[in-house]
Amino acid sequence: MSNNIGNLVDRVYREYLEPNDDIQSFSVLRAGLDADSTDTIVQYESEYLTSEEEDAMEAGAFIEVGQELMLVTNLNTSAEQITVKRAVRGTSLQTHSINDLIKLNPVFPRKNVFDAVCDQIENLFPTLFAVETKTVTSGSGYVLLGSYDAPGNNNYLVSVLKAISQYTDFSQNSDQTGVIFQPVSVQMIELPNPFTYTDSEGTERTITYTSGPNQVNALQFYSIDQGHTCYVTFKKKFLDVRDYDGDGDVEDTTLAEIGLETEYEPIIMAGVAAQMLSGRDIPAATVENVTQAMQIQNFPVGSSNSIRNSLLQYQQLLITQARKYLRAKYPEAVEINGVNAGVQ
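Now predict its structure.
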């Protein structure tokens, strides 16, 4: 299983797009490259290339390092150097390290595969969704999810699945606590983005989301006094990997950070493969590799079906199975006049 987006992209290549008997021409960097458009000399190791492959890196060819495509403007085989124009065809400048892989005229550019992975994750919702449980302190009036100085990704929350607490108001209008968790009635409110409010110290604050859904979310509690700890489980959209503000390298973003369960990986991979192979002349080795991968999953590719259609059918089967699991574990909450009753 993959633990981050980069590993998931690699798995798509390994299991679908680049079979071992159809490896594309490649070399490695002899020196690193800065994320600077003036750093245009690529030093490569010639020992990984045949003379024909090396000659193919002449002016007009494309090379790829990481997600960055570069246009070759000059080749110096004796010095093992390529002069390039950086960040072409919609890719961005990146920093590259010694021994990073150089691909020559890649059939499936990594940036394209990465974008396809992002598209497939985004398209899972609303059929599939992420789930997140938050600890929230009940209050009078609305309780904002997030704050002006730490908004988080609470704008991706969609609805409340359930809410529970050990503190519950009873008919005697007194609070009791114990080891038993009781349901809490709660309503999620969508507020405009940005949203200006006055905090508990009387200071005017503004909470703003610059990426993702254009809304600010808050909770309204019922049947519980303010100041009590509640555990609220939300249905949530998967985070957009391209907008994720993690450690700076989007491929290092873990699946858990965007809310993606590891069992959803085959769904993503089948969709990416179908998206990448659509409308292309598929190499024979890739056709054989995809066919074998589908047969391993007991989903043979019939002669009347195209590779792409078979992949989409296989993906839909996996989505249906995952959806049944979600419905069984997280049934829709009971709502009365828009208020979540806190029970399933």
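The first helix runs from residue 5 to 17.
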